Amino acid sequence: GEGARAIRAGSIGSVDDLRKLMEEVLPGDRVFRAAFASKVVRNSKQARYYLRTLEKVARQREGLTDELGANLDENEVNLEHIMPLSPDKEAWGHLSADDHTVFARRLGNMALMLEKENTGAKNASFEEKKKFYVASELITTRELAYIDGWGIEEISNRQDEMADLALEAWPLSTQ
Hints:
The longest helix has 18 residues. The chain is mainly alpha-helical and about 180 residues long. The chain is built from ten helices and two strands. Helix content is about 50%, strand content about 5%. It is elongated. The protein has a two-stranded antiparallel ribbon.
């Protein structure tokens, strides 16, 4: 990229010079946080990566080792859509079709569940799913059990909290 070309050309003489150049190219923390707070993820592998990294930060905040998070591979962990991609109208009728389209693939509507924990959550109502969440070994999933209901406000609030974790996971600037 631009930084590498500048280093080869000799116009970058120090780490501070490179940092200044990169600050012009990279968004600041405020811009990154705002983008993350509304992130839509369609690729399940990418979603797992984000959620696994956020779990790692949550575990660090609690003073826990990341032994569990480091061992999560896609054969051992399921990507759970809290509001399902194909919701049962009876269980999820409180959300409009438009809300579903906009929020179903937001990162705040996703969680990781260990294969052994996810035996029946699938398309169940949020109240039913909470029984699975409360037993999770994953902090970011277990926290879902203490939310009263699930809708666009809860998805947005959760993703806003995730954005704070993301800033710790991927700090972009010193601002």
